[in-house]
Amino acid sequence: MIPPDVLRVAILWGPGVLILVVFAYGSMRLIQHWIDRSMELKRDQWEETLRVARDHLDRVLEAQKSQAGAIAHLAGSVEKRDSTEGYEHKEMRIALRAIHRDIQLMLSGSKTEI
Q1: Do 75 and 96 form a contact (C-beta atoms < 8 A)?
Q2: Model pTM?
Q3: Could you read off the pLDDT of 36-69 as tens digits, one per residue?
Q4: Angle separating helix axes 4-80 and 87-113, nearest 10 degrees
Q5: CA-CA distances (angstroms) from residue 22 to 17, 19, 70, 88?
């Protein structure tokens, strides 16, 4: 048989302990939900920041590609003309080829990093 003191303690403290356990469990679930939600918002912010940076980098690469094409076109037109100026045209052609080569190297290097 159960001693009367244990039965009395169980009757007096049982409902309070049960309420305390339910309250603690509910609080832990609420805290866990709040932490998960804040981490999800931070992750979404980082993804948006990375998307904006990626878009900006794509625009810069497209601009560089367009400039490289323009320089190649300019170098081709300089090569097709008869060189009446002599060394000035040759220097310009060499400089344009060097710039075009540097831009192409930069574009090929940046695409391998992405």
Answers
A1: yes
A2: 0.49
A3: 999 999 999 999 999 999 999 989 888 888 887 7
A4: 160
A5: 9, 5, 72, 88
